[in-house]
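Practice problem. Given the sequence and the SMILES for S-adenosylmethionine, write out the predicted structure.
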Amino acid sequence: MSNTPKHLEERKKTGVREYSPTAERNTPPLLDVLTPLWPKNAHILEVASGTGQHAAAFCTARPDISWQPSDPHLAARESQDDWGQDVQGRMKPALEIDVTADKWWRKLQEYDAMFCANMIHIAPPESVEGLAAGAAKVLPTGASLYLYGPFQEGAETAESNLTFDESLKCRNPDWGVRHLSDVKHIFATYGLKLSKRVVMPKENRLLAFKRS
Ligand SMILES: C[S@@+](CC[C@H](N)C(=O)[O-])C[C@H]1O[C@@H](n2cnc3c(N)ncnc32)[C@H](O)[C@@H]1O
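Answer key:
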């Protein structure tokens, strides 16, 4: 993987701490939906944590939880560790995780939940399978992975997501807004069933996949 962080926006930086306007905009609705859903005292694994803003926001909103952020890119991990200073050690040092790597979950413990936002459309299609395969390994029965971002939903697909899909494919033919039906099928293959679908602002979706 190249060492260029994958995002599509201008970000401000203070030292190593990055500020994503998209993450900032998405944080309030994500907090509304997810804060009540994290199990008590949960230790949560986040894949593709980006700047680390979501991790810090969840840890602030839920003082009982702890969080394992990760990203393939060093600059992102450094930013995550910096945001972690705001939440008294409840964000663990960021891990290097690339879900397209072979058995990326090998050295990980079990987690009570997983979270991944805005990753699978700017990563190759194999990232969906890698995410599902890892979730099946690190989540116990009954635990959920929460996946946030844009999706195609057949005839229901928002015009904005079709346009976004085209623009992503122009930048990189491996990228694209994934079809919810394909994602659902891949997760089901690994024993994770779609248990919740929440319509979020700007035609995003929050999906819960529960391990059976
Ligand atoms: C648009 S950013 C989203 C960051 C953050 N989740 C958010 O919503 O603000 C996409 C992130 O996915 C990460 N990423 C890309 N390919 C990945 C892969 N194969 N495995 C894990 N993370 C990946 C990038 O490094 C980047 O930080």
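Check your answer against the key. Residues 5-7, 20, 22-23, 47-50, 54, 71-73, 76, 97-100, 117-119, 122-123, 127 surround S-adenosylmethionine (CB under 6 Å).
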